[in-house]
């Protein structure tokens, strides 16, 4: 494995690079675009925010932002309808300060004062609208951090690493664990369980490899010479 500073060699390796939010596909230097409401939401108490993405994450995070005290939320969704669960949608829609716009995408974002000027584009009729919000929160999916591993280990169609029951990949000595792995549930607990299994399996693999290696032999080099090993 090569890093910026060193080249490491090992008998086994565990890939645990996690995943990251899909970024908003807009060229901007705006300082008010966020991907985590738990991390950044409290800065927007009493303010107006735009939430991008009408899936479960967008709705759940909007509920969380409202619980923090965000004053007003506009949700934009590119599809014809939002795909968040009906109950979550109903709960959020019951708040008076939430505006949900489907068939709408963000065309541009720019810094303005202490917030940002956003250009929204209606995907059905092409109409554009410019509005001021204090911040933008983006929840349009997650992406596995596997760019480095393409061609090294087998990945699924969504670029997650395919592993066996002991988190082994298709390459001997290479394991993968946590969010980067193809699986149904991605939580701290499932990541820790994966990482424990992968570490135990890797340790077992290393021990077996060492045991199978040719052990150094003791050689007598001459009648009066000590035995060397
Ligand atoms: C906003 C948010 C809130 C969450 N809240 C909860 C919660 O309340 N409860 C819960 O159980 N789970 C929660 N989760 C999920 C939980 O954080 C993850 O399931 C867990 O952290 C996955 O662990 P991991 O080790 O696989 O990946 P991560 O914790 O993402 O760690 C991966 C690490 O690898 C590093 N990395 C990436 N690429 C490289 C590279 N090329 N070289 C070297 N290092 C690299 C990354 O920088 C990162 O430090 C939350 C996730 C998010 C995003």
Tell me what the structure shows.
- The protein folds into two domains: 13-19 and 144-211, FAD/NAD(P)-binding domain; 23-140, FAD/NAD(P)-binding domain (3-Layer(bba) Sandwich), CATH 3.50.50.60.
- Helices cover 22% and strands 26% of the residues.
- It has four helices and 14 strands.
- Helix 2 (56-68) packs parallel to helix 3.
- The radius of gyration is 26 Å and the shape is elongated.
- The structure holds flavin-adenine dinucleotide.
- Flavin-adenine dinucleotide binds at residues 16-18, 36, 38, 145, 148, 178-180, 186-189, 191.
Low-pLDDT runs:
none
Q: What fraction of the residues are assigned to beta strands by DSSP? A: 25-35%
The helix/strand class is alpha/beta
Distance between the termini: 31 Å
* Largest sheet report: 5 strands, parallel
What's the CATH topology label of the largest domain? FAD/NAD(P)-binding domain
In the CATH hierarchy, what is the superfamily of the largest domain? Answer: FAD/NAD(P)-binding domain
Provide mean pLDDT, rounded.
92
Give the ordered list of helices and strands. EEEHEHEHEEEEEEEHEE
| Bound ligands, each once | flavin-adenine dinucleotide
Number of domains: 2
* CATH architecture descriptor text of the largest domain: 3-Layer(bba) Sandwich
Which descriptor suits the 3D outline? elongated
Helical run tally: 4
